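User: quick one, fold this
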Amino acid sequence: MLGKIKPDLQQNLFKTRLTELINMEHPLVKLAGEISWDKMESEFEKLFSESGRPSIAIRKIAGMLLLKEMFKESDETVVERWVENAYWQYFTGETFFQTEQPFDPSNFVHFRKRIGESGLEFLLGQSISLHPKAKTEDEVQIDTTVQEKNITFPTDAKLAKKVIDNCVKIAEKEGVVQRQSYKRVSKQLLRDAYFGHHPRRKKKARMARKNLERSAKECFGNWKESCLRLF
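Assistant:
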């Protein structure tokens, strides 16, 4: 059975309403007023039976899923932070400040299984619908300053290996015959240079890096000498 949040219109002498505690100009307060919670409830209502124990209110659990994605929280931490954040509680439909967790974090798993991928896409569509012009924009500006990137730190060993590989590649393309390509040697030396911070591998890694740099210099020298002889 679908659970719903019942509006509490009565005054409570021992509790203070959230609207009297928070700033009504806060971005989350404005966002809560723009989201169509009724549409969201009617969309998921068909997934619940008409009898049985009431479920968690759609606005509460769906709102916490949105907060979870907006603030990059886990199932456990978003529930913990909800208890101490009045704006999060208002966003999910609470009238008074709550001091206990709204539900167990495992309920997120059950809810995601119930609504499926189409339901998750619907939730994402609700946030996109708030900015209809964004879908027709020709250009989109994205700040990737703190985004994880698929790059690695350019160590001396990697640069030396890259020098050897490029020399071999150019030589093969131009038909230059080298006395030694160091192709197989550099591959093994690069493996030996890994994990040099470990005490048992520190000496071996240091020697591998030195040999790799020496091989890169010799490879470049041989390649340069072969090119001069050719021309």
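User: anything notable?
Assistant: Residues 18-131 form one domain.
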